[in-house]
Design a protein that fits this description.
Layout lengths: L2 H15 L9 E6 L4 E4 L15 E4 L15 H10 L5 E5 L2 H9 L8 H6 L6 E2 L8 H13 L3 E4 L3 E6 L2 H27 L9 H11 L8
Parallel strand pairs: 5-6
Antiparallel strand pairs: 1-2, 1-4, 2-3, 4-7, 6-7
Helix pairs in contact: 1-6, 2-5, 3-6
């Protein structure tokens, strides 16, 4: 089994295992740039039924190159990101619960905790609502990414797209975005009840935590 296809399948399964998707919503893809193709979840297939061999291979125009299954309807947005961002090796899309609350409200997820600062180093931005005509979503994602350089972006009234250097890293950013959104939701909801003003971390503290997490001091060589 192709290593990339296996990695894309595992990243899609991670969405289900971490309760980031419901029904058949959501998808993860990965790109082989030298080969000129991507692997992506098939459209409308339940995660519990998804086998590695069912992951769809497409060329960089979205034309299926393997099997009888259709690729995700979001393939066009994944391809738009890959075409514009050469550093990206994986794209993930979810409609996870707390991220979707912020999408409905049109609110960015503020940096309230060091865990948020570690991973993202900034608010998780939200775009205005855009419909699914052509690659309108992909264009909105690119505009936001170029402005904020955040690997997780909320589409207004919709859900989350995240990017990484691999399919699993893109899925990781989706998981952490949901963690940050859930933490922020409860902080904003409970703060007024308890008579407490909830303040975001200062830019100086955010930069300090983000710098440590992304330095050689953190993790293994």
């Amino acid at each position: 089994m192709d290593k990339l296809r296996q990695a894309v399948w595992k990243a899609n399964q991670a969405l289900r295992q971490n309760n980031l998707v419901y029904g058949t919503q959501g998808n993860v893809s990965g790109i082989d740039r030298p080969g000129g193709f991507i692997y992506i979840k098939p459209s409308g297939v339940a995660y519990e039924e998804l086998a590695p061999s069912m992951v769809v291979k497409t060329d960089l125009t979205g034309k299926a190159l393997s099997g009888a299954l259709k690729p995700s309807v979001d393939t066009v947005h994944h391809l738009r990101l890959y075409a514009a961002l050469p550093e990206v090796g994986g794209v993930c899309h979810t409609h996870s619960r707390f991220v979707t609350v912020f999408a409905v409200l049109g609110l960015a997820v503020p940096v309230f905790s060091t865990g948020h600062a570690d991973v993202f180093g900034r608010d998780i931005p939200v775009t205005p609502y855009v419909d699914n005509t052509a690659d309108a979503i992909g264009q909105a994602l690119l505009t936001s990414y170029r402005k904020y350089r955040c690997p997780a972006i909320i589409i207004g009234k919709h859900g989350l797209f995240s990017v990484g250097d691999s399919p699993d890293k893109a899925a990781f950013y989706a998981l952490m975005a949901e963690y940050c959104a859930e933490t922020a939701y409860y902080a904003l909801a409970l703060g007024p009840v308890l008579g407490r003003k909830i303040a975001r971390l200062s830019p100086k503290e955010i930069a300090k935590w983000y710098g440590r997490y992304h330095s050689s001091r953190y993790g293994q060589k």
